[in-house]
Write a structure and sequence with these properties.
alpha/beta, Collagenase (Catalytic Domain), 5-stranded mixed beta sheet, 8 helices, binds zinc ion
């Protein structure tokens, strides 16, 4: 499962949150425990840089990274060694494809090694041989909906997403902007694809999104009720649409022209954004991350029931909400943030 915080406990000897950063959702870090007189990165430093820092920088071109080297202790010739340590971090990130723009290398601290952000803290063992990293997250959080105008009333899709995410962005100290377009750039991106239509199998086997940033609009339009279950097994999680038996006897649940359809797609969109942020499914029909919809569908519930649930108002479980706030605050989306960065198997 994807990590939910930025620092893996295994790295803790050499990577920790710095200063005023909250322990749970840090944006400032200390890479410590460099060998005396050495600027070589430790394995833990490399893993953190590759698995967290590079992802944050790659995903959002507006993020800046502030670096300060430390090289203290008896007999240390501070300046150059501290500089070389910063350089090691920058070089690894450049090697991972990060352009030069994000890097802000600060004036090296002269002698007192205590950074301003933690005035009372004395450097612990190994912390005088270190690099301070501060990830500067832009105040605006852009969510881009590519080709959302495939949905007739897409303004309602935007409303659903805004209602769900705007309060969480605010808790993260950021302002949510949702943009509909095709060539736009966003920190979080969803692509509205057609998906399959017509001969698609109805109801229980339909896949409305793929967990890596796609929403299948026509598949949502084709949602029907009345067929029996055709899952390969009761626990099957992902079904290859090509391999599913067709089931007859069906009524369409939504008309693509009606506002309820757009609300349904909005709920699916929020669900898919949840996956981009790294959330797993949860139970409860009024949860955005519900998987129970599949069960509901497989039980051949009535059209009325399905409309009430699927186009109804939903919310995030509190721990999911907390993780979304954390992702927005740190700029780190364990689920991959968009189709730019394919992460895991379809869900
Ligand atoms: Zn899902």
């Amino acid at each position: 499962m994807a990590a939910t915080t930025t620092i893996d406990p295994k790295w803790r000897n050499s990577v920790r949150p710095l200063g005023n950063s909250t322990e749970e959702c840090p944006t400032d870090y200390l890479l410590s425990n460099f060998d005396a007189q050495s600027a070589d990165l430790k394995r833990e430093h490399e893993l953190f840089i590759e698995q967290v820092l590079a992802k944050i920088l790659r995903n959002n071109e507006e993020v800046r990274l502030h670096l300060t080297g430390r090289a203290g202790g008896p007999g240390a010739n501070g300046g150059t060694l501290a500089e070389r340590r910063v350089d090691s971090v920058v070089r690894l990130l450049r090697g991972l494809g990060i352009p030069p723009e994000p890097f802000i290398v600060s004036e090296l601290p002269r002698r007192p090694l205590q950074p301003q952000s933690e005035p009372s803290a004395k450097p612990g063992p190994g912390e005088e041989q270190a690099v301070e990293l501060r990830v500067l997250i832009p105040p605006r959080l852009r969510v881009v909906l590519k080709d959302a105008d495939r949905v007739r009333n897409y303004a309602l899709v935007i409303d659903v997403i805004r209602d769900a995410l705007s309060p969480l962005a605010k808790r993260a100290g950021r302002e949510l902007r949702i943009v509909q377009g095709h060539h736009e750039y966003g920190e979080l991106e969803l692509v509205f694809e057609a998906g399959d239509r017509g001969t698609r199998p109805p109801n229980e086997t339909m896949i409305f999104g793929n967990g890596d940033g796609s929403v299948f609009v026509a598949t949502c339009e084709e949602l029907r009720v009345g067929g029996g279950p055709r899952l390969p097994s009761p626990t099957a999680h992902y079904i290859d649409p090509a391999k599913v038996d067709y089931v007859s006897a069906v009524v369409r649940v939504f008309d693509p022209d009606e506002p309820e359809f757009a609300k349904f797609v909005g709920n699916i969109a929020v669900h898919e954004i949840g996956h981009l942020i790294g959330l797993e499914h949860s139970t409860g029909l009024d949860s955005f991350m519900t998987e129970t919809v599949r069960q509901l569908l497989s039980q051949g519930r009535s059209k009325t029931d399905m409309r009430r649930v699927l186009a109804g108002s939903m919310s995030f479980r509190s721990d999911h909400a907390r993780r979304i706030v954390c992702a927005m605050r740190t700029g780190f989306y364990p689920g991959g943030a968009s189709v730019k960065d394919h992460g895991e198997a379809p869900r």
